[in-house]
Design brief:
single chain; alpha+beta; 8 helices; 18 strands
Length: 264
C-alpha cells in the first residue's frame, strides 16, 4: 500500500483523544455524504471500527457475505464497462485480508455471483491471493461486520480526515462524484446478482416524472431485459439519496413500497 496513505492515517489517528473520544458517537462520511448504519461506527481497544458494508458500497464495491466460511467478499465494479476491476476477501476469523490477483478478478466475480455459489468455487483464487495483515480481526456486532479504520484506508486506498469538533471520520474516494453517479452506483450494488448479467440492464427510469423526483434527490431506475427485438421492464426502483432508503414498485397494488431486502 502507498506510504502516503499510511502517513495520512497515522496523522489522523494521532488527533484522536483516546479517553474522551471513546465516549463519543462516531459519524462517518464517504465522499461528503453521510453513511448511516445501525449500529454506528465505534471504538474498540483504542481502534476506530467502521461498518464494512456501508463504507464499501458507498465506494462502489459489491459486498457479499459467505455464511458458510463467514468471509466477506468485496468486488470493485467499473460501472462504465460493467466489469469487475478489483476483488478482496476479508476473513472474519483472522486478522487478515486476501487481495485477489488482477488476472483472477473477473473469474472470482463470476463465481461469487452465481446463485449456486460454493466456497470451493473460489478456493484457487484465494490460494493465489496476496495476504495482508490487519490490526485486529473484524468484529461482528448486531449482525454487522466492522473492520478497523486503518484497513479501510490501506485496502481501499482512500484519503481520510478527522473532524474533532463533530467526531466525524471522512473518507474521500479517488474520484469526486455527482449525486447522480453516487445514486446509480449504490443502486447497482444493491441489485440481486441475477440482474447484473445479460440480458438484464439497469437504466434510468423511463417514467415521465423522473426529473421532478431528482429535484428531491430521489432517483428512479428500471431493470430491463434487453433483447435484440424487444425490451421488457422487469423491476422498478427508487432511491431517496438523502434518506438512504430504497423503494420498489408493486405493480399489483400500483404503489411504491419500501424494499426490505435493499434496505438491509
Amino acid at each position: 500500500m502507498k506510504k502516503r496513505n499510511v502517513l495520512a492515517l497515522a496523522l489522523a489517528l494521532m488527533a484522536l483523544p483516546s479517553v474522551a473520544y471513546a465516549q463519543r458517537d462516531v459519524k462517518l462520511e464517504v465522499n461528503g455524504k453521510p453513511v448511516v448504519s445501525t449500529p454506528a461506527a465505534f471504538i474498540s481497544a483504542n481502534r476506530t471500527m467502521v461498518p464494512v458494508r456501508f463504507v464499501a458500497e458507498a465506494l462502489d464495491y459489491q459486498v457479499l457475505w459467505n455464511e458458510g466460511s463467514r468471509d466477506i467478499l468485496l468486488t470493485k465494479m467499473d460501472f462504465d464497462t460493467n466489469k469487475p476491476v478489483q476483488a478482496m476477501v476479508l476473513k472474519t476469523e483472522a486478522a487478515k485480508a486476501l487481495l485477489i490477483a488482477k488476472e483472477d478478478v473477473d473469474a472470482f466475480y463470476g463465481a461469487t455471483t452465481r446463485l449456486e455459489f460454493q466456497p470451493a468455487d473460489v478456493k484457487e483464487y484465494m490460494d493465489r491471493a496476496e495476504a495482508v495483515e490487519l490490526e485486529t480481526k473484524p468484529i461482528i456486532k448486531e449482525n454487522r461486520t466492522f473492520i478497523p479504520l486503518r484497513a479501510v484506508v490501506e485496502l481501499f486506498d482512500q484519503k481520510i480526515s478527522w473532524d474533532d469538533g463533530t467526531s466525524t471520520v471522512s473518507i474521500e474516494g479517488k474520484v469526486a462524484k455527482t449525486d447522480e453517479e453516487i445514486a446509480g452506483a449504490w443502486m447497482y450494488s444493491k441489485l440481486p446478482a441475477e440482474y447484473k448479467k445479460p440480458p438484464f440492464k439497469l437504466i434510468d427510469s423511463m417514467l415521465t416524472d423522473r426529473d421532478a423526483l431528482a429535484k428531491k434527490h430521489i432517483y428512479a431506475y428500471d431493470v430491463i431485459e434487453d433483447h435484440p427485438d424487444h425490451i421488457v421492464t422487469v423491476a422498478r426502483y427508487r432511491l431517496d439519496l438523502n434518506a438512504s432508503v430504497f423503494y420498489k414498485y408493486d405493480a399489483a397494488e400500483d404503489v411504491w413500497v419500501r424494499d426490505p431486502e435493499l434496505n438491509k
